[in-house]
């Protein structure tokens, strides 16, 4: 939250944990930390790479913008909040990188909220809710939070069955209603649209705000056809879930993303000014995102060596109630501490999955509960995507905008996680 690089913060915290936990500092950093870092890098580099390139291609061909603009025109300003959530959710579920979604949808959100005179401080909540609260944990999602459990439980991306689908729908509906209610209440209290910053004279966003009619006319002329824009997203989802029935889910995702990249480049070649540049930029983005996550996993590998961690694992395993409850609490706590859903899964599942598998717990249930648990308290104020969305994309502050994020992306998913545990236990 203070802007300290996560890699530096993870190393500092690893040193502190090693010293206070009585570990040999050299062993903790050179062995435990680096083993956790490099193992995660080796396992997920290609997924991060192709995912980032796919997102960058969708951004550079303006496909993401075309989809967002179509949703804006279809739903209109009367459903501004729902339109923003829907745009973010469709693209995220289609495999587009979270950060690409945030930057692509924000201008549309700005235009909608301005036209509807809704408070700007709710835009981050709409973006975060649509991007991570239900799309990344839902059955069939190509997001890495739904792929990591397949490696540990031997499942497919659709694992979890009806309860998994129901959980995603409940989060979507309950969170959407709650967010809409908060926005209406703020409007009734006299809040109006106002920017938290003063745009500079050469700010493209300012130009869009000053003359939205010109922006919309320009958009219509320069964006690819929305149906063509949807094709790569649909193909990624379909290929992933079909191929995962016959091959390793991670390999299926790589094939699906490669196909999505190929389709986006070929069907929208006229909108792709350069080919190698988005590949280079996507690669750089992948390395940054993956290194940040690896740093968190490396920290977890150091923390796992101290006696307190063993005590925590023992407490979870021996916790009264269904085994899924211990698994869920373990995953969600680690994700909350690290502020990373993928990083938390990378730390918790290698340790917890073998324990619960040996107890005969249904792998599909554990897969879905792990995914749901990763999407709860990971969205605390220090979460990387939350910080980027609030501060960088929207120019807001946590003080103004975090409260609605907490309700729809922490409270609702966590409650639904416990509901899913109950349903899996009963059925």
Describe the protein:
The chain has 427 residues and is mainly α. It has 19 helices and no strands. The chain has helices at 6-20, 25-60, 63-75, 80-93, 98-116, 123-133, 144-153, 161-188, 204-210, 212-222, 226-243, 249-267, 276-303, 307-317, 323-338, 341-358, 363-374, 384-393, 398-426. The two termini are 41 Å apart. The model is unreliable at 200-215 (pLDDT under 50).
Ranges where pLDDT stays below 50 over 5 or more residues in a row are 200-215
Strand content: under 5%
Order of helices and strands: HHHHHHHHHHHHHHHHHHH
Mean pLDDT: 89
Strand count: 0
Structural class: mainly alpha
Estimated radius of gyration: 21 Å
Distance between the termini: 41 Å
The general outline is globular
Binned, the helix content reads over 70%
Largest sheet: none
> Tally the helices: what do you get?
19
Structural topology:
Layout: H1 6-20, H2 25-60, H3 63-75, H4 80-93, H5 98-116, H6 123-133, H7 144-153, H8 161-188, H9 204-210, H10 212-222, H11 226-243, H12 249-267, H13 276-303, H14 307-317, H15 323-338, H16 341-358, H17 363-374, H18 384-393, H19 398-426
Condensed summary:
It contains 19 helices and no strands. The protein has 427 residues and is mostly helical.
